[in-house]
Amino acid sequence: MSDRLSARFAACRADGRAALVTFVTGGDPSPGGTGAILDALVEGGADIIELGMPFTDPMADGPAIQRANLRALGAGTTTRDLLDIVRGFRDRHPDTPLVLMGYANPMLARGAGWFAREAAAAGADGVICVDIPPEEDEALGPALRAARLHPIRLATPTSDAARLPAVLRGASGFLYYVSVAGITGLQQAAQHSIESAVARLRAATDLPIAVGFGIRSPEQAAAIGRVADGVVVGSAIVDLVGSEGENAPAAVRSFVSALAQACARQEHAA
Amino acid sequence: MTLANSLRTQPDERGHFGQFGGRYVAETLMPLILELERAYRAAKADPAFQAQFDDLLEHYVGRPSPLYFAERLTEALRDSAPAGMGPKVYFKRDELNHTGAHKINNCIGQILLAIRMGKTRIIAETGAGQHGVATATVAARFGLPCTIYMGARDVERQSPNVFRMKLLGAEVRPVESGAKTLKDAMNEALRDWVANVDDTFYIIGTAAGPHPYPELVRDFQSVIGREARTQMLEREGRLPDLLVAAIGGGSNAIGLFHPFLDDTEVAMLGVEAAGHGLDTDQHAASLAGGRPGVLHGNRTYLLQDEDGQISEAHSISAGLDYPGIGPEHSWLHEIGRVRYESATDREALDAFQLLCRTEGIIPALEPSHALAAATRKSREMEQDRIILANLCGRGDKDIFTVADALGVAL
């Protein structure tokens, strides 16, 4: 497996801080405009990039990312454009891990094998598929593993003890803890519930644990960073891409740098 | 009794119909649909559940629905058919159900399941509004709060049903995303469900979605085919030669077909909506114009582009305006047990008017598609043959759409 992800988590741990994981939608505001946004994420201090694959029916996403999907598709973004965005990023940033995140249908449209090979060749490190649970792993998992991509699994507040082993079986890269039962970008979970959930997950796996959903401010990111290995921020950045137009890279850079500083100042509990 | 090689034993234990079906949902929902599956298995094995379901179907819905020989329609079709052609046409009259369509059968089953599971809030999606009305109806009957998601465009073209749902105490939330039709309403219902997993039961209206929905919706709707089979044997002493039903998601069709699947002498025809024509991009025929993919929890035939982006469907019938189809139909299509054809908006409108004038029945636009295909088939079938078409809904809700299409100002 590509080890950019584990190397980055290890480096952050050595720094005594959580990794900052940032999400934007590929092709937003346009296929040609995403590269500058990704550069701004890295310049601002993001450790890991989650690049969303736009889809017509993003049923796990809230209004912010729904709009980003519409902007990307409205600008004509194709799967090939997305792979070009990954390739360009990998050329410019050889050490920053990038994972693709999206829905099953665009990943399976030309066959799981095609997608996994192309994504790996372009320089992706892992894949998060929202609507392929462990029960349907064979639709995509074997192809990802064959291409040496990390299949990154999601755990949620509803993943109880009986279910966790199934979620963890075949998972690699990191474990993404979706901290609220809900869609992206809306409410944040209570800090104490996140702390107990992360403790529960730590007891079950050695994978790094990144926490996401509803984290919008540097203060929230710092609080989560004290208990998790990674902090995922998505909708708040995506909103900036939507509102700032041509100034989006600068606005994103400054916001991400505030997030990164908040994560760096903390005393890591682990 | 099912045969050793029966076609009626699908899906497998993981909810797959061949390569179709399955459970393609976000992790948050996965424990819920596993719980739903356990609850459904227990209910299915519980005679008290079945007895309550049957009792409500009889006394609240008005079942069994009649099997009706459409004598004047049969004569009219014989008049225009080649000599000796023109089979007897029967209708399964599910438009006479309480709320005017087959949708209520499934809603009764699912709300009983919801109550059994201790859920206290109901949500549903709706296209034409028939499933929304049926869901609002059972929610009122059992005193549960109910939220219906409906595409904003459908809210406009089906305003009588919107008002019905409100009268029944439901909250109707117009969905402004995407093409503002059934697909988008389903996305929004899924978003609601994932955020309200503890107390909410999602009553899916068609035989699609993640396992076990395609199976349980089919089972609840199979009352249509079981009754029809018995009634036809009583009336004609034999089974029909051809079953015909319209397909959006396909719940009325699978309900009619499933009890007959092992009757090899019975042919079956599912009718997709061809909209402005299969040679345009304005249709809703997922089998004819789509390919397998994953949407709304299941793998099935979908209208989509080469990147897997879902296409917008079009049909004059809001109830057929969906870019997918239930997974069991995809499977029956691939194994060849059921034949699938389509009918255009125009053909459905013609069939709609034909039935009004020959039988005094105003059908919904959905079964008008089935009727159009039955009309076509009748030219190739001899007079001693029998067609059984599912009249799955009545047309009161569609009169404004039809008037508009015919250029009549009301």
From TrEMBL, chain A:
It catalyses: (1S,2R)-1-C-(indol-3-yl)glycerol 3-phosphate + L-serine = D-glyceraldehyde 3-phosphate + L-tryptophan + H2O. It is an enzyme of class 4 (lyase). Keywords: Amino-acid biosynthesis, Aromatic amino acid biosynthesis, Lyase, Tryptophan biosynthesis. Pathway: Amino-acid biosynthesis; L-tryptophan biosynthesis; L-tryptophan from chorismate: step 5/5. PROSITE patterns: TRP_SYNTHASE_ALPHA. Its EC number is 4.2.1.20. GO terms for molecular function: tryptophan synthase activity. The active site is at E50, D61. One of its GO terms (cellular component) is cytosol. Belongs to the TrpA family. Tetramer of two alpha and two beta chains. The alpha subunit is responsible for the aldol cleavage of indoleglycerol phosphate to indole and glyceraldehyde 3-phosphate. This is Tryptophan synthase alpha chain. It comes from Sphingomonas horti.
From TrEMBL, chain B:
One of its GO terms (cellular component) is cytoplasm. GO terms for molecular function: tryptophan synthase activity. Pfam families: PALP. Pathway: Amino-acid biosynthesis; L-tryptophan biosynthesis; L-tryptophan from chorismate: step 5/5. Residues 64-393 form the Tryptophan synthase beta chain-like PALP domain. The keyword Acetylation does not apply. The keyword Oxidoreductase does not apply. Its EC number is 4.2.1.20. It comes from the Bacteria. Its cofactor is pyridoxal 5'-phosphate. The modification N6-(pyridoxal phosphate)lysine is found at K103. Keywords: Amino-acid biosynthesis, Aromatic amino acid biosynthesis, Lyase, Pyridoxal phosphate, Tryptophan biosynthesis. Tetramer of two alpha and two beta chains. Belongs to the TrpB family. The beta subunit is responsible for the synthesis of L-tryptophan from indole and L-serine. This is Tryptophan synthase beta chain. It comes from Sphingomonas horti.
